[in-house]
Amino acid sequence: MATPGSGFWSFGSEDGSGDPENPGTARAWCQVAQKFTGGIGNKLCALLYGDSEKPAASSGSEPPRATSRKATCACDQKPCSCPKADVNYAFLHATDLLPASDGERPTLAFLQDVMGILLQYVVKSFDRSTKVIDFHYPNELLQEYNWELGDQPQNLEEILMHCQTTLKYAIKTGHPRYFNQLSTGLDMVGLAADWLTSTANTNMFTYEIAPVFVLLEYVTLKKMREIIGWPGGSGDGIFSPGGAISNMYAMLIARFKMFPEVKEKGMAAVPRLIAFTSEHSHFSLKKGAAALGIGTDSVILIKCDERGKMIPADLERRILEAKQKGFVPFLVSATAGTTVYGAFDPLLAVADLCKKYKIWMHVDAAWGGGLLMSRKHKWKLSGVERANSVTWNPHKMMGVPLQCSALLVREEGLMQSCNQMHASYLFQQDKHYDLSYDTGDKALQCGRHVDVFKLWLMWRAKGTTGFEAHIDKCLELAEYLYNIIKNREGYEMVFDGKPQHTNVCFWYVPPSLRVLEDNEERMSRLSKVAPVIKARMMEYGTTMVSYQPLGDKVNFFRMVISNPAATHQDIDFLIEEIERLGQDL
Fold this sequence. Notes:
Layout: H1 23-33, H2 40-49, H3 104-125, H4 138-144, H5 156-168, E1 178-179, H6 188-200, H7 211-228, E2 236-240, H8 243-258, H9 262-265, E3 273-278, H10 284-291, E4 299-302, H11 312-324, E5 328-335, H12 347-357, E6 360-365, E7 389-392, E8 405-409, H13 414-419, H14 452-485, E9 491-493, E10 504-508, H15 511-514, H16 520-526, H17 529-540, E11 544-550, E12 553-559, H18 568-582
Parallel strand pairs: 1-11, 3-4, 3-5, 5-6, 6-7
Antiparallel strand pairs: 2-8, 7-8, 9-10, 10-12, 11-12
Helix pairs in contact: 1-2, 3-5, 6-14, 7-14, 8-10, 11-12, 14-18, 17-18
């Protein structure tokens, strides 16, 4: 294992030799690195280039590297006065860092070395010669390292080694060939914002302890409501811990809107409530129903067409059935970008039915909401402006670092009425500022993480046009993949026609199965192909893409693209890799 001050400064390929095919990249990173203090810049340059090539800006003798026991400086000033002078991690512990007396120097040295580990990981995340994953089975990792917690403190040398080890086995979700989840990519401005958020380390419940963050949440949610199409951005909203919680918020508020007495008296005071969502919708709707005491049996799944879109005629039929049984339909959750097919439910038709039967309309746009930023693709969410609430996850299609999920509500004040508990030790009514900015009482949580700053700072850095370019590029890459494989030997599409989102669903059929008749035996054998190829991808560490069965369809690949670092060449690589890993099956 590499030790602090030595191995963790190796960049480029897995052997630390750099990227010989792209010296310009190393030079560019080196120029940026020169701005770091405390010797970090010189270390980065020396090890980006290796021993054989160094930029003119870092000429002279190679800066000394720290041993495994001492953080030696790399500055050019002698005698040295930088923070890393005479800092020996082997004899230091967390109690020697700030707020300890004389803790400033070891603190700065320690954090600079942590930053070095992080910067190495960032650079490698975009290096195609590095692995997406260094896969080990759980029992192997458990046996290889001692992960147990002890009574006695470890020294800072060991703490830095833990940081290295953790990132060594982390999945590089920012890698251009990581396609496994809806949330991919690593945005530099978003990353910086996340670091700042952790440094500020505050809570979102009142203005008095998070003044800027509370104002930024107000501004950002208003802008998102404007983009949805609500006049003047009116309404309400909150950032929550993921789309599942945002969807549960919508269900909670919809129930309160229809039966406000449920807040005090519980489900015993209301009739049997029924929610409706498509059979391709996210499982969080049922989870929310279970958590709220509504029950999973009270979530009716509506049939979808062959492209995965909710069928409005079946929705109306099931609404009438529920009403005939004496049940009360209270929520329809339409999906804008289903998890597997990337389908967009017909929101206008759903809105008409919700208006007709006086039912709350929610749109789960966790995955598809980002398309509202694109003039080319926002038509796919036509009708979203008629919704009562919308879930929108910027940490998916917009590339904001996890987590960043918003629940937007059209009616202002409803969230507050639904959730407030008037905790007098937080929400005093005689404060000297506008109490409407104490937003914590409308949340289910008390402690709430600052999730808005990442999105706000990225929006400032990119502008709406930058997000639009990001989204348009990802959609174009999905169409590129579809056009390549739709008529390629060995590939079968799960559904006909080009995808509406970046989801491209297909089977890879190895040569041994191409001659078989389309029968049960072929389907049984085909179902084993995707899992084996996925396992081989992870063993080699070359790429990652998801697979799953759906309904009567056996395991198929679901390719999704949300990382703007991906290119046509990465799509070509994925196709070739699937064929390489699956041709013998």
